[in-house]
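Hi V.,

You were right to ask for the full record rather than a summary. Here it is.
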Amino acid sequence: MNIFFKVLLLAVAALVAQSAAASDVEDLTAMLRDFLANSDTAAAHERFWADDLVYSSSAGLRFGKADIMSGFDSASDEETGAPPAVVYSGEEVDVRLYGDTAIVAFKLVGRPTDEGSGIDVMFYYNTGTFLKRAGVWKVVAWQATKIPPE
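Predicted structure:
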């Protein structure tokens, strides 16, 4: 009976861990989609990036959260009500969990909101490293790579 009880407890623990992992994958995927849908707002960036972020851009620049947030200091489209020039979405999202660390890789697609703007659809591979601190996922490292046109 004692062995049966131990096996039962292990099975329950495995199910709970599996459920928690599935929940984290869903949470991270939803978090990414929400961020991309609202990426023209300071609030979205505040929620998404950790204060100690290291961002390596596709232009070969490296910066942190403070640099990103400083772009919202002046009057932004968010305040003027103007639509963003480009809207972003994520495709081929791949979430991998390693305890309180997650790697989220995906293809970022930037589509112009005005087809006559002369802006081409843009494609990037993005990889983010998320840490769960005090129960909250935030991005601590980000790498963006522009996908060249075919």
